[in-house]
Amino acid sequence: MKMGDAWRRATTILFTSCPHQAIDDPKLNQNPRTQNPSSKTSWICKSSFKMVTVTLPEPFASIPKSDFLFGPSPIHALPRISEALGGKVEVWAKREDCNSGIAFGGNKTRKLEYLVPEALEQGCDTLISIGGVQSNHTRQVAGVAAKVGLKAKLVQEHWVEWSDPGYEKVGNIQLSRLMGAAPILDPSTFGIEHKPTLASLTKEVIAEGGKPYYIPAGASDHPLGGLGFARWAFEVHAQEKELGVFFDNILVCAVTGSTFAGMIAGFKLLELKHGVPHRRVIGIDASAKPAETRAQCLRIAKFTGVKIGLKDEDITEADIELDERYHDGCYGIPKQMTIDAMRFGAQTEGFITDPVYEGKSLAGMMDMIKKGEIKGKILYAHLGGQLALNAYSEVC
C-alpha cells in the first residue's frame, strides 16, 4: 500500500466514556518511537474505539476534578489537508470542539473541570467571569453553571471592533442568554489581565447576598487554570501509545494562555519524570499582545508545574515557544491569510475553524509546514470557536 493511499484511508478516532477505569495493558508501557510495526504504514490504517486509560501521577491525581467531558477528546488524521500541504508531514487533530455535551463544549470546559469543585467546596452560588461579546469561554461558564445548578453572571466587553449586525445577538452570547446567564455588555476593550469590570461584578453579587466564584478571562490566570491541559498532555500520551504514533509537534492557539501553558507543564512532567521523549509545543499567538501572552503563559506554566509535581525551575522562558507572525495585527479581526486558511480547511476536509482563534492557528500551521519549519507528525489542537461564525457573516 502506498503512503498516500494509506493516509487517505486514515480515520482513527480515540474516545472513551470511562476515563478513570484502570486497564492492565502491556502495550500502554511501550514507547511509540521504539515500536516495530509490521509495515511503515500499519499505524495509519487503524480505526480504534478502544478505551484509553489516563493515569496521572501524584500529587496531580489527587487534585479534585469534575467530569464535564465525554472522556478523552478524539484524535483523528487529516489526510487530505496533509496531502494538500505537500504530503511530507502527517497532520492530525485533537478535537476539543467536540469534547462535551455541555453547551457544545470547547477547551474552557476542560479547564472548568478543575475550577468548579473548588467553587462548590467553598459554597459559592454564582460563577462570575468575563470575555468579549463572542466569548467561547463565558458560554462554557454558563453551561457548566447550569449543569451543576449554580447561577452565572458574565461581563461581555467590547473586545473586537466588528460591525456585523448580529454580533451582539447570535453565536456564543445567544447561547449564554439561553442558559440564563444574562450577560452584561460593557464598552471596555480587549485585555488578558484581571479587569476592573469583573471586580465590580464580584462586589455587586456580594452586595445582593450572593457568594461569587471568580473566574478570570479564559479561566487562565487562576491557580487551577492550567490543570485541564496539563492533564490533556497525559491524555495525548495514552492515545499515542494506543495508536503507535508519536507527535513530534503540538500546535495550539494562545491568547489568555492557560491552554498552551498547561500543555507545556504536562508534557514537561512526562519528559522529566516519566522518560517520554521531548517534543515541540508551539503556541500561535492570536492576542496581538504577544509580550503579555508570553509572560502570562510562563507564569501559568510554572505554577501549574509546581502543583503537578515539578519544580519552579523546571520550566523556563525557553519552553514558551510562542509564534507572533499570525495574529493579523489585532485580536478578533481576521485578515486574508486567516480567511484563506478557514476556507482551505473547510473545503479540503470539512474542517471548520473560526476567525478569532483556530483560523489563525491553522494559518500558522499551514505556513510553517510550507516553509519546512515543522516536520514529522503534527497534532493540531482544535479548541472550538465555531459558534462565533454566525457573528462573522461577512467573512465567508
UniProtKB/TrEMBL annotation:
The active site is at 135 (nucleophile). One of its GO terms (biological process) is amine catabolic process. GO terms for molecular function: 1-aminocyclopropane-1-carboxylate deaminase activity; D-cysteine desulfhydrase activity; pyridoxal phosphate binding. Residues 70-380 form the Tryptophan synthase beta chain-like PALP domain. Pfam families: PALP. The modification N6-(pyridoxal phosphate)lysine is found at residue 108. It catalyses: 1-aminocyclopropane-1-carboxylate + H2O = 2-oxobutanoate + NH4(+). The keyword Iron does not apply. It comes from the Eukaryota. The keyword Hydrolase applies. Its cofactor is pyridoxal 5'-phosphate. Keywords: Hydrolase, Pyridoxal phosphate. NCBIfam families: ACC_deam (TIGR01274). Belongs to the ACC deaminase/D-cysteine desulfhydrase family. This is Tryptophan synthase beta chain-like PALP domain-containing protein.
